[in-house]
Please model this.
Amino acid sequence: RVTPPRAKTSAKRPAKKSESAGRRGGVADETVVPTVTWFLRACELLGDAAIASVEPGLDCFARVELLVKRLEAHPDHEKLHQVLGAACRECLASISLHGRPKRQMIEAARREKREVFDPDL
Model:
């Protein structure tokens, strides 16, 4: 069973209509309707938490795999695309300096991925 990463930050909940009804002269209603701004802020915070959940000290190949998984969950997060691009460029530089990654490096990257995403855990 895979558990999604938890965000360490949270967006403020939108005000209940009943709390703002007196100021606007409207009818009190218990329905909470999040605004577009609230959704955008929440998505931004979740994407930032996804970036923070990938340790910078990991091998670049493991970081790329983990960032791709997080990008699948947050495809509209611009910083996540930028961090993934930087990790990919780091992998390309590593390949140009040291040649193709050895099998042990690939297996280590996959082990790192399994520690986070293995459904058998």
